[in-house]
Amino acid sequence: MPSLISPGKIHRLELENFKSYKGHQVIGPFYDFTAIIGPNGAGKSNLMDAISFVLGVRTGHLRGAQLKDLIYAFDDREKEQKGRRAFVRLVYQMGNGSELQFTRTITSAGGSEYRIDGKVVTWDEYKARLKSLGILVSARNFLVFQGDVESIASKNPKELTGLLEQISGSEELKRDYEQLEAEKAVAEEKSALAYQKKRTVVLERKQKKEQKEEAEKHIRLQDRLKKLKEEYYLWQLYHIEKDVTRTNEDLEAEIKSREGVIHELENFEHEASKKKKEQAKYLKEIAQCERKIAERSNKLDKSQPELLKLKEEMTRIRSKIERTEAKVPRWQSWRTRSPGVWEGGD
Length: 346
Fold this sequence. Notes:
This protein is α+β, with helices and mostly antiparallel strands. The chain is built from 6 helices and 6 strands; from the N terminus they run E-E-H-H-E-E-E-E-H-H-H-H. 60% of the residues lie in helices and 12% in strands.
């Protein structure tokens, strides 16, 4: 079944305990043109129902009152068993050869569970994915059911228009269209009200224009009064500015004199700071020298016993060397008399 947006087709169906299909059944692969034939009761319609079921068609269109009626049952006793489940999986082959799996399961609680490539999704996500492939569940534009051709042929023009809107998907936009129509009526009403307000505004504008001319005359008189006041204040400011200039000159002379005194004070403070730093440096050097003297004195005190011990050891070694040197001539003469024979000992 080709898609309008992403060309593809149904590759195969996998059914488990759906209607007359007991256990796990695989039907397919389907080809570009596939015919399903068989005697009455062979399951042709149930195969169409399986395709419709997995593509989201309601239970009422699948010859069942509720979802549990679509689960395989051999007899009434098996139908009453708890925990019965069924599913239909549709493997859709895309135009590029990749596969997309749609699975709809009837749970033991009697509800529907939707999966895309094995991942559980909501009905809205499931429906949106089908719509992206050009499959409109509400319009049922993917299958022609038994009796549909005869039903369409007997429809009047209005009903045919409704059918075309359903198939094309424009029926979903009907609510938006009606809402926009209502908004349009409201906008037209507001436009008429705005026109009436405009006429009222024109009359008010004429009155305001006259009031404006009077107000402008009053403003001109106020501006003239304001200019006169400005001239008067400027005359006062001129004399005040002269007094301020003279005062500032006296103040600057006083500041310069004070700055000289401050500069001399800063020089004295800088010299005193410099001397303090030198004093601190000398004190630090003295402290370091005193610390080194103390360390060397302690080290010398600690090394006195060791020095005495070394002197004693040197005396002992020197005595031993002297004794050994005294024995060397006697050993050499004995070696000369008895070559090749030697015994230890003094």
